[in-house]
Amino acid sequence: MRRLSELAPGRPGSIFTSDLSVNEFLLVREAGFKPIGLVLGSSIYHVGMQLGRWSRNQELETLSQAMYHARELAMTRMEAEAAALGADGIVGVRLTVEAREFGKDVAEFIAIGTAVSGDTAPPGGGTWRNNKGQPFTSDLSGQDFWTLIRAGYAPLGMVMGSCVYHVAHQKMGSVMSNMGRNVEIEQFTQALYDARELAMARMQAEAEALHAEGVVGVRLDAHNHRWGGHTTEFFSIGTAVRPLRPDHEIERPTMVLGLDG
């Protein structure tokens, strides 16, 4: 809190801190936002244990909930720091998971980004904050953030979905029958498809709760962490966006062709 108080806008002698590159910083300023300070949230979390059936594809819901909740704690604490600074949003957010030596099931979940305030209100009035009254969050680069604002859209928040899934082992008879053959392993295909679908659907549900028009910059990552080869976390994340004007449409360039082609 002492560090944040020194970053408070309007405080004599206050300076901003930012992990934006020079180009990103200049483009964020060009987009009409002033950096206030680096904000972060952290959660050191013990991820519990859940066993999956050896021969069954199934989500490990206890682990899915743990991985989601730990990230949510880190994000919420970062957002609280931004709110304490009176920020309108957080740009360039990085959300990482780092294993710690406290134990094999212990990891630190870290969220960090640059809190910003808008120089002016959004076109059409209102506020840059999302419909929950919280500063927006975005993991877009400074360049992509500038493009988004110039195109008439605003970020609402980072949305995410997690699914930890146990992929069934093959029976010995199947392993032997497939040796030397080109053949799809359908139970593996179905398991990975289902797991990704669950992660994506949960991310989409978060975007709908923010009344977003869509989600940009989506990433769908797979992490084994320390669970072994048959248990994987599928994690989807992106930035939910809204148009700055209800009737907004992106202008498309018009191509003019000469008579010769």
TrEMBL record:
InterPro entries: UPF0145_dom_sf, UPF0145_YbjQ-like. Signal peptide: none annotated. Gene3D superfamilies: Hypothetical protein apc22750. Chain B. It comes from the Bacteria. Belongs to the UPF0145 family. This is Heavy metal-binding domain-containing protein. It comes from Actinacidiphila reveromycinica.
